[in-house]
Amino acid sequence: MIIGVPKEIKNNENRVALTPGGVAEFKKHNHTVYVQATAGLGSGFSDEDYVAAGAQILPTIEDVYGIAEMIIKVKEPIASEYNLVKEGQLIFTYFHFASSEELTHAMIERKAICLAYETVEKKDRSLPLLIPMSEVAGRMAPQEGAKYLEKPMKGRGILLGGVPGVKPAEVLVLGGGIVGTQAAKIAAGFGASVTIMDINLSRLRELDNIMPANVKTQMSNHYNIKEAIKTADLIIGAVLIPGAKAPHLITRDMLKDMRPGTVLVDVAVDQGGCIETCKPTTHENPTFIIDDVVHYCVANMPGAVPFTSTLALTNATLPYAVLLANKGWQAACSQNDELRLGLNVVNGEVVYKGVAEAFNLPYTSVNNVLEAYA
Predict the structure, then answer these.
(1) Confidence label for 207 from pLDDT (cuts 50, 70 and 90)
(2) Looking at the domain 131-299, which fold is it?
(3) Were both Cys, which of 73, 148, 154, 312 would link to 132 (CB 3.0–4.6 Å)?
(4) Taking the CB of residue 154, how many other CB atoms lie within 10 A of it?
(5) Mind telling me which residue stretches traverse the membrane in this protein (predicted)?
(6) Is it the case that residue 96 has pLDDT exceeding 80?
């Protein structure tokens, strides 16, 4: 198969979807890999590194899309890329369709095969291609929150861990999954007083057993959230419903209950956000203020630490990408339940229920589509 790796062009996105080591793995299976010039520089990989591993370098993004049967990316195609996508071309990347109706319609119109990292799912309901970036984003969230709590950043002027004789910051984490767990762990390491909320009592029991003494668990419901935000200095949104739009746990009218300079970090923003007032921002302009509350809503947080993020992501994605190249997407998805759940849009049809429901679009069973290709 011919694999193409374009350079990421989303604002301040420095990750790359394939390392030179990944190129060597594809070459071992007799596949051809084209990499756009300078695609890996942001992650520390030169064009020479890719050539040495067996890739061929192409000068433009148009060249890469034009020749590849499978495009491997990190982030979803943006508007300038839509027309580069060919009918029947396999795009393997993070899509987060439920947060963008424009992207969804664009891929439907292009009749691409859209296989989303974030909905590849194991039998135990874990999301193997989302976990690495969830771990990075979760660990970054308190780090970014601590920065924006500083007064020059319009925060409350509070040191996350406090000092002897002065209480630490109060951190509220909404969601006890991968992101929330990592966020709570790092915030606790800073010395903050942390409360983590979830709707799953069994999960709260697990967290209560493994977290340090400065992390408290609490059942997530509207009343508890509304009370907790009154004293929280940093609130981290870490709620995920795979492939679907995140629910709004904090609404616009709840901002009035927060103290001026409170910081919100919505890690779920690339899936619509669990804080109603959060809209996607970039590393270039990461924050905005509503009702004296600082909102940090960068949709590609791990892009700020590309060396770590690229290696963590490609460790997880490469085995699936090689399987797709070896068998073709039809056979691979028919034989592998995890990959089958990654299919979101196939040849103009929405085959993932969460995406169809987000925009009231017709839904076609992925099994029916695969049978048609058999």
Answers:
(1) very high
(2) Rossmann fold (3.40.50)
(3) 312
(4) 18
(5) none
(6) yes
